From TrEMBL:
Domain CobW/HypB/UreG nucleotide-binding: start-end pairs: 5-175
Source organism of this protein record: Pseudomassariella vexata
PANTHER family named among the record's database cross-references: COBW DOMAIN-CONTAINING PROTEIN (PTHR13748:SF62), COBW-RELATED (PTHR13748)
InterPro entries from the UniProt entry: CobW/HypB/UreG_nucleotide-bd (IPR003495), P-loop_NTPase (IPR027417), Zinc-reg_GTPase_activator (IPR051316)
Protein's name in the database: CobW/HypB/UreG
Signal peptide (from-to): none
GO cellular component terms, semicolon-separated: cytoplasm
Length: 363
């Protein structure tokens, strides 16, 4: 059989990697209804969230690597995960979606190594997604954000629609400061033509070898900056069967979280009443609402609630608890946010039983 093409999608926290991926599916199915796309997803924290969203969106197969980084302490699991997807799905293509902190060059080298040793894969290219609205801010402080852009075959500029041309030009200038000549494209609200993302024939990605580790882009900087740029809290809210999270308190958290302290909030939860994604008209009447299971995805002050379909098998990492949440924070913010959450101001069950809240720092 021909080697399975692998596309790596990377980008800093909240840039829109999963949205980009999910917008490729309708295009693929329109061209070939039997096309099978598999996903290997690396997530911060100890709960699978984006991968459940992908599973509910007709991706043929999903493997997830949790609570670590696919380019360093989880890299040894890459071979096994790819092999499992190949065996269980026989996909036409595999997308490896990294966590927001991954170094794409290190991951590309590992895929190249597996391709040489097994003959089962070929690295098609590395795609980096940039959030135009916020990249100028976090690029200043994040070594990882700069490396993700420097070692890539294609840049997708996302979330540019709400910015003026000056902001976009500033981001282009900052990318230019990295002294790399990389093709780029603007997304249309997270959508890019599939033939632009797949088939980039990434020359840079495939030529990366272990020799690159001799350069200072990796090595010490990787261990020092890469693992300490963010802090991660794992949150569990326990309760009796049928318990639901107070939607009023939860919405207060989403509105109050400052984006210079909180980079991402991801959760699987049961809401007590109707919840609204950011930007929805709050003056509209709230319809009757049975307790509903949702996937919450919050990034830089904007969020979406996606109902978890009844037929979707929930990942055992969330285990039907009223709430399982991952908060990805800026450095030195975990202690403050642990106290805020434990105060009961934002997360509790609806009704007399407020539930048992457990907040754990995991990185």
């Amino acid at each position: 059989m021909a080697p399975i093409p692998i596309t790596i999608i990377t980008g800093f926290l909240g840039s829109g990697k999963t949205t980009l991926l999910l917008n490729l599916l309708p295009q693929l199915r329109a061209a070939n209804p039997t096309y099978k796309l598999a996903l290997l997803k690396n997530e911060f924290g100890d709960v699978a969230i984006d991968s459940q969203l992908a599973t509910s969106s007709a991706i043929s197969g999903v493997q997830e690597l949790l609570n670590g980084c696919i380019c360093c302490n989880l890299v040894g699991q890459l071979s096994e995960a790819l092999a499992e997807l190949q065996k269980s799905v026989t996909p036409d293509r595999i997308v490896v979606e990294t966590s927001g902190s991954a170094f794409p060059a290190t991951l590309a080298m590992e895929v190249n190594r597996l391709a040489r040793e097994t003959g089962n894969y070929t690295l098609d290219g590395v795609v980096s997604v940039i959030d135009v609205e916020n990249w100028k801010g976090y690029e200043d402080t994040s070594y990882t954000a700069r490396v993700q852009v420097k070692y890539t075959d294609l840049i997708v500029f996302n979330k540019w629609e709400s910015c003026d041309e000056r902001r976009f030009d500033e981001v282009l200038d900052r990318v230019g400061d990295l002294e790399v000549d990389i093709a780029w494209v603007k997304s249309d609200k997270g959508r890019v033509p599939v033939d632009v993302i797949f088939g980039v024939d990434g020359g840079l990605a495939r030529t990366l070898t272990e020799e690159a580790t001799a350069r200072n882009e990796h090595g010490h900087d990787h261990s020092h900056d890469h693992q300490t740029e963010v802090e991660v809290l794992s949150v569990t809210l326990k309760g009796k069967e049928g318990s639901a999270v107070s939607s009023v308190k939860l919405m207060a958290l989403l509105n109050a979280a400052p984006k210079d302290e909180v980079y991402r909030i991801k959760s699987v939860l049961t809401a007590s009443s109707t919840v609204r994604s950011s930007g929805e008209d709050e003056s509209l009447p709230t319809p009757p609402h049975p307790s509903q299971r949702y996937i919450l995805n919050w990034a830089f002050g904007r969020w979406t609630f996606t109902p978890l379909a009844d037929e979707t098998a929930e990942h055992n990492s969330s285990d039907h608890a009223p709430l399982r949440m991952t908060l990805i924070l800026a450095r030195y913010e975990s202690t403050k946010w642990t106290k805020k959450l434990e105060s009961g101001s934002f997360l509790e069950l609806d009704g007399e039983d407020k539930g048992e809240l457990i907040v754990t720092k995991i990185s």
